[in-house]
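[Meeting: bench + compute handoff]

Bench side (C.D.) handed over the final construct sequence. Compute side (W.E.) agreed to return the predicted structure before the next meeting so the bench team could plan truncations. Sequence as handed over:
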Amino acid sequence: MKRLLSGVVAAATILLTSTIFVQPADAKCASILTRHEIRELSDADRQSFFDAVKKMQGEKQPNQFDEFINQHITYSTQAHGVPAFLPWHREYLRRFDQALRDHGSAVPLPYWDWAADSQAPETAPIFHPDWLGTNGKGHNYCVADGQFSNYKPYYPTPNGCFSRRFDGDTPGTIGALYSTDFVAELQASSKDYDTFRRGYEGTAHARVHNAIGSSFSYMTSPADLIFWLHHSLVDKHWAEWQALGHTNDYGPTSPDEKLVPWDIPAKATFDTTAEPYCYVYSNM
């Protein structure tokens, strides 16, 4: 199995339909939605989000949720350790967000501010048994509680489980993550895209995957809903850096490079307030 910083491409077949992105110049959004930190949501809105995920997971397998996992496995080397890391995941999250809305979610994809919880991540409410569940159990470290513990991922092998193995020194705890201050300093000191992307992807981003551990540290991590909340914060941190005067900053490859499998240029993702993105983040 492939870890997040590995360079091996999985031999998986993608079944999601690829669509061509067509964006008129300066495409304007009819409305702008706000992605909130998951604790900011009302109980009803948060449950609407959870229910949409469960509805997607409950469809005949391989279902749309399974195929999001498969896509992350299949295009791992095109989406990690390369300039496309941030734009690829922005588009990936947009498509997941749309799928959630199609399955009844009343709110845009939220984020988990793990930087705010960095010194005791396991105490964050997302790890409550009534939310996304606690540490993995048993010899396979499968997640056995939380609202999604019944989900059995189809990929990489059918009827598997998603697992966690917290890396703290005390059982059931997670070692420290990178703090809000660290992220802010990296944003302020990074004068070009390559510096920011390299500095962020291999530290703050990767640390969350490796700290939660087990299957969350591999390319199968989208099986765990925490992945989507984590990467929503990753996208927020990029948006914050862009707001420092780097909206169109990209490199060292061309902003015209295509993101696979969608055949859209990286530059099409740069503005979250333009079509088809149409969102901002709270607390910016």
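W.E. noted at the follow-up: Residues 5-25 have pLDDT under 50 and may be disordered. C.D. will use this when planning the next construct.
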